[in-house]
Amino acid sequence: MRAGFNKVQDVLENYRSAVYEKDVERFLSAYDSDIHVYDCWENWESIGISQWKEMVDGWFNGLREEGVVLKIDFDDLVVEENTNLAFVHCTVTFAAHNESGEKLRQLTNRFTFCLRKENDSWAITHEHSSLPINMETGKGIFNLK
């Protein structure tokens, strides 16, 4: 059973805190079982919660092995919603910190979330993360701002 997210902001806060705590199940609780993700890491896309879970497991396990926590900031946040659908776009900064709190690195991605409300709870049905590309090098630009 999915957790209850009464507000779109609840979904974003869950994203932030579940990543920080590396809690796979809580992180996935904000996603619809038919989630469709376009990610800018490794896989072109993940379709369905089981494919998305595989990616999230690998991500969180890598963070555990490295001994880092990710602090997340949502900036330039725009939320448009009606009764059952919401559209969110923002920049998301992921800052990796070691156990003593020292910032090791950070990167910023562009994100779009589409959410649907069912039984008074919001769930992410589509997520798209992207980076602008430097046309001379073909590499992603992680910190444009």
Automatic annotation (TrEMBL):
Residues 8-133 form the SnoaL-like domain. InterPro entries: NTF2-like_dom_sf, SnoaL-like. This is Nuclear transport factor 2 family protein.
